[in-house]
Amino acid sequence: MRELNKGWPKLDEATHLGKRTPRIDAADKVTGRAKYTQDVNLDSMLHAKFTLCPHGRARVQSVDASAAQALDGVVLARAIVGEGEELEHAGREVAVVAAESEEIAREAAQLVRVEYEVLEHNVADASPDLAGEWAREQRGRDQGDVDAGFAAADVVVEGRYGAPIVTHCCLEPHGSVVEFVDEEHVNTWVSTQRISSQDEDLAGELGIQPENVRAVCQHMGGGFGSKFQFDVWDRECARIAEETGRPVKAMLDRDHELMVAGSRPSAYADVRVGVKKDGTITAWESRSWGSGGAGGGSSPRLPYVFDKVPQRRTHVSIRTNTGASRPWRAPMSPQSCLITMAALDDAAAALDLDPLDFFLKNLPFTERPEVYEEELLIAARLMDWRGRFIPRAAQQGAVRRGLGLSLHTWGGYGHDSNCSTTIRGDGAVTVSCGTQDLGTGSHTVLAVVTAETLGLPVAAIDVRIGDSLLPPSGGSGGSTTVGGISSAARDAALDALRQLLARAAPELNAAPEECRAQGGRVFVAAAPERSLGWTEACGLIGPEALSGSGRTDPELMADGVGGAQMAEVEVDVETGVVAMKKLVAVQDCGTVVDLTTAESQVYGACIMGISSALFEERVMDPTTGACLNPNMAFYRLAGIGDVGEIVVHLMQTEAHHARGVIGIGEPPVISPIAAISNAVANAAGVRVPYAPFTPRAVLTALGKGRGR
Amino acid sequence: MKDFAYAVPATLARAAALWREAPDASRFLAGGTDLLGMMKDFVIQPARVISLAAIPELRGIREEDGALVIGAMTPLGDVIASPLVRARCPALVQAAAGIKSPQLRNMATLGGDLLQRPRCWYFRRGFGLLGMKDGKSLVLDGEDRFHAILGNAGPAKFASPSSIAPALVAAGAELLVWNGEGTRRMAALDLYRTPEREEESEFSLAGGEILVAVRLPAARPASATCEVRQRKSLDWPVAAASACLDLENGRVAGARLVLGQVAPVPWLVDVTSLLAGKPLDEEGAKAAAEAALKDATPLAGNGYKVQVAEVAARRALLAAAGKAG
């Protein structure tokens, strides 16, 4: 039956697609009915906590857990590293303790006595002058005739830019609960970005069959790229559950979380940009450096977005004794974007050009100039850029206003996903998919697509996700989820609908392909008065539910987005305090499934971007190698008063809608740091080289304050 | 958190007696917003926690012989809401209101704020109050961005963390302290001292002494607090200043400026000689602020705090005089 339109309905013909559906799990979340891994508490459950290495780098000489074992309420305490093992950063797990309560476990973890041979370490990454064993020069890259480009330049603008290591700081920390049902069957609750393969990892660890493991993650308090791995705490949780025969919960404490459970690599660069007087870029040269932990780090993509510019780039990877980096929402892109957009903004300022004109003029160096032009002009209108832009250093007074802009790009092509949709004889509809909802709106996406396809209200759809027993779906990384699950859900719903229409069509004296489902009714397309109510039609199904199955469908998805953002800040040039006034985010993402949750993704990304632009930085002590700010008082995040006004504009035209679904989780988090850096430079009159733009960073750039 | 015994005595005498049973292992608990966090981080591990919540004379705001007496266990939220405090010491209300968390304002107490421990991250990570390792200062070799820029010649590099101490010191407040037998009085500034050795305290209270109340004098000088915080939401000030001006016919007769978060103790500067006899203006405020910071000795990475403190001082003086900073 080919006649049912497999493609997405047009924007003006859709009932739910692209419209506003409030998050279907919102009430559960605000009332606390939504249960996170942290909320799982089972009878006779043990709590596991870890003893962490306090040194930047050390070799374990001995571990004595006897005092911990002797504490009342402790069931198990043991080393999890071998004698002689080298630990590469502070916070590495050395021993594990399982006890009757979290507090006892924490106290016992402090009682494990570890002898270390302390080794030389390095936690510094902000200077390019580090040499020797800590720095490793990577192979450079040339593209186009760079020397000719600089020779053709009227002006060469130089600058230094960068961003430090920040953490993912998931509000729900990493961790899991493991329970043996019997010797061969295990349940696990885990905060993960890939529930469908969690069973395999755990089964492998325990030597049991994957089908005997049920992994559950109904709700998640953020992952941002840091929750893909089967981690040491998951492993120890499983082992202890196996050894003790009791359920075990191992959720990280905040300090542990901030030290080891994920960070974004730093990236810094010295940049030279050649420009003609009319604003045309002629060449780019950059020498970048940065660190993602003991393994070094990857190089930023420079120049970002404007990648057709003749370019020469080199990178030095610095090894630091810090918790290893993990993919952080659009890996390496916020850093690459900051370095590029700040350097180009400085070039515009050196030429005394309005950055908006400068960026517009150079769009031919990008992959999608027409999209960026459209988005920049919309952003400029929403910011009143033309009316409000004041050139750098043209203001007096303590508090000065500044505007800055940035462009970004991302892929967002959907991953492989399976989905099933069942329709019961009483009309109930269930959509099941082994995906997870990181807080992004996966529940709602599945409900919207299924409701749209079956012609039902969104509230009529029961959504089941976050369970390894459900049809497998890909991990939620790379902004791949929405494309994968929405197309699979469309496919599954259509499959179920075809079966339903096959039952209903004879009652309507029509062929199944002549029938449609819409507005809660099943009817003949050419004669809508020949119809059955949904429940009536489903009554024909009989006792066995209909089950449709679906897979990711490339024809319903697309790849590649742009995005333009503009920031307005106020800088107090006496105190160095930067205040966000407004952030405008213009974003395309092809077919919008649910406008409300798509916008929420952009709002959340803007807030996360503002937070790392102004506040976030993991501070390490050079002497001991310890992390100095692994708590939420010292590791500062933006609060509700710090984000200013955020204006989100999604490109929702028929042309964008016709492209297919594209992920939106990552792209809007890329530009805020760059746009804010440019706004700060515009207001303060000088470039603040490194994020975060704290009073210290701003006043130092302004040459205010005393001492070194 | 290490397991501990918990006591809730109803009288000062009983509280002091409980403390004397195990002086080294006991801690008094006020609102708990600071102590409990340090206990959870194993920075402080008392075997006994003695709550002061059930002792009636530690609470409330009342006028006594023209002075205003505020019980040490009075929540900061009550201090902010009190018309009596507002009329007498705007600088105190502004300082307390700068704690941008309703939860903290409702739980934290006046006395607890005065006696909170430094936020030096070396101290808070278990390296001791002075942040020393192998006889060397971790602060000097490390991350000093929030540390002291004044009074830091000795081993103490931390910054006094109290939000309200500068306002109370500037206002000439006295503290009432129960010493087990009776109540003694001290100037608010005398609560603080700069430790020279790791085992010394940053407070001058003797073991077992309990801060009972703060006494604001009858005089009502013009006052204001200016804090420079990076975040608009809950954030500790980078630097802060409280100013009290005795004004006679619009002219300054006395001026006390106290800087917070910049030295191991609240940093009192008598700027009367610079300002006396004239109405306070931008120029005078600037000169006084510069004078207050002229002896600053910033560490390698916190020279910016000199600038921030100077701006806070100037703005506090101008605000006290009713002029926009």
Secondary-structure element pattern of chain B, one letter each: EHEHEEEHHHHHHEEHHEEEEEEEHHH
Helix content of chain A: 25-40%
- State the shape of chain A: flat
Q: What is the beta-strand fraction of chain A?
A: 15-25%
Tell me the major beta sheet of chain A. Answer: 7 strands, mixed
- Tally of individual helices of chain A: 18
Q: How many structural domains of chain A?
A: 3
Give the CA-based shape of chain B.
Answer: globular
Question: How do the helices and strands line up, and which of them pair or pack?
Answer:
The complex is a heterodimer of chains A (708) and B (325).
Chain A: H1 26-31, E1 46-52, E2 58-64, H2 66-70, E3 74-79, E4 86-87, E5 93-99, H3 102-111, E6 113-118, E7 135-143, H4 146-152, E8 155-163, E9 166-167, E10 175-180, E11 186-190, H5 195-206, E12 213-216, H6 232-244, E13 248-251, H7 254-260, E14 263-264, E15 267-275, E16 281-290, E17 311-318, H8 333-350, H9 355-361, H10 369-383, H11 385-388, E18 399-407, E19 418-423, E20 429-432, H12 442-454, E21 461-464, H13 481-504, E22 515-518, E23 521-524, E24 527-533, H14 534-538, E25 546-551, E26 563-572, E27 578-587, H15 595-614, E28 645-650, H16 654-657, H17 672-684, H18 695-702
Parallel strand pairs in A: 1-13, 11-12, 16-17, 20-21, 27-28
Antiparallel strand pairs in A: 1-5, 2-4, 2-6, 3-5, 7-17, 8-15, 9-14, 10-11, 10-13, 15-16, 18-26, 19-20, 19-25, 22-23, 23-24, 26-27
Helix pairs in contact in A: 8-17, 12-13, 15-17
Chain B: E1 5-7, H1 12-21, E2 26-29, H2 35-40, E3 48-51, E4 61-64, E5 67-71, H3 76-81, H4 83-88, H5 90-97, H6 102-107, H7 110-114, H8 121-127, E6 132-133, E7 136-137, H9 138-141, H10 165-170, E8 174-178, E9 183-187, E10 210-216, E11 222-228, E12 239-248, E13 251-260, E14 267-270, H11 272-275, H12 282-293, H13 304-320
Parallel strand pairs in B: 1-3, 2-3
Antiparallel strand pairs in B: 4-5, 5-10, 6-7, 8-9, 8-10, 11-12, 12-13, 13-14
Helix pairs in contact in B: 12-13
